Amino acid sequence: MGTHLNRIGKSALPGLPLHGLVKVVAAVIFLSSGLVDLPRAIHVGPLSGQALLTVAYYCGALLLLSVIPILEVPTPSRTVPLLVFMFWATTSLAWTPALVEGMQNILVMGAFVLLLLVGEATASTTPEFALWTSRCLDAGVFLAVAIYGTSVLIWGPGTNILISARSFGLFAVYGVANQLAKWRHGRKQGLLWAVLITVLIGVSESRLALGVAVCLFPISQIPVRGWIQWAKAAVVAVSVAALSYAAFNYFDALRDRFLKGDVSLRIWDVSINASGRTAFWRATLDSWRESPLVGKGAGSSENLIESVFVTISHPHNDYLRILHDYGFAGTVIWAAGILTLLVSLWHAWRHASQVFHAVPQLYLAGFLMLIAFVLSMTAENPIVDIFATAPVGLVVGCALGLQRSLARSRVRFKGSPIRQSPNPSIRWAR
């Protein structure tokens, strides 16, 4: 299994095995993602550092896929819907009025899909790569925490001077997801880190990211079996609800961020500060009705919002972006792709939780990160931010690849749960 992989890697890049090259690429992606939107301040001609990273990720993933032994790792049906969506999105460039923006968006989404395939192909033949991505994700999140934490100490809560609070929140929730997965499967310090990262997200005053992070705590404790897990899940849910209620009532700055300003969004009887989003959403929906089935083409929602609101260039709801740009057809395909990934990760995690010790954490991390991603899409723009899409693609791909690796090994376990992975390289230090 590893011999063939190394042989192809050495023939492609002499002196560096292929799995070693993929590890280097993964480390670069996670660490650069830890810079969040800081690269936007760097410009090379008309391109920002963020745009250059997007092109580099896309081309790098495409190059790796050209040398990874794909014939040994056929694409399973669970990734086909996303590939169909990318084909549809690329086709929509034929009728978009915003060709440049459309191409940029397709590069970001394409990098997500390509990196997912790279992660899957690599982890299916080199299972320890999945553990490597988890460590690299930790490093990237800690880098982001260090940068934003320093910014808060210098300029105060909610600062946007080095990296924006919203962008930090979009990326930091992945760290919460990864740490909660570790906590769920025996690493107690995971809870401490998850709480600390969530607190810093709260200090950033990024409301959506804070809400997503808080939701991940009870989701991470979904019971697989046994009354003890149900009791733990109930305790976590009640604790999260109580702490959230206390924070909302006793921290004026946090409460004001939710209840003051543009309170045009109503949830039941509560008016929420939407920061102008409801106007963006109405304009996007009105424009979508002119071409509901196929949409107006990749990037057209950005063109619309910028033409109406001048200083704003995103609809701040990626579901409406997909609906507007790719129509009802594209939205259905996208939803099918994401739902397929979520169901695959869910089943893999539930099964592995009853068998292995280390492997379930990797599945749960991918599942929680994808949950965070789809929740963030409700009022932000993660689908067009490379620091928000690339890490998810790699981690989810690794989880899917690891599942295939274990299935191919044809190892069968009977009886009580086993506390060790069949692959000795996939084991947590206790």
Descriptive overview:
- 68% of the residues lie in helices and 2% in strands.
- The chain is mainly alpha-helical and 430 residues long.
- The strands form 2 sheets. The protein has a two-stranded antiparallel ribbon with strand order 1-2. A two-stranded antiparallel ribbon has the order 3-4.
- The radius of gyration is 21 Å and the shape is globular.
- Mean pLDDT is 82; it is low at 1-16 and 410-430.
Question: How would you concisely characterize the structure shown here?
Answer:
With 430 residues, this protein is mainly α. It has helices spanning 2-12, 18-33, 49-67, 80-91, 99-125, 128-155, 165-184, 189-203, 207-220, 227-250, 252-259, 277-288, 300-309, 318-353, 359-376, 386-409; strands at residues 43-44, 47-48, 265-267, 270-272. It is globular and about 55 Å long.
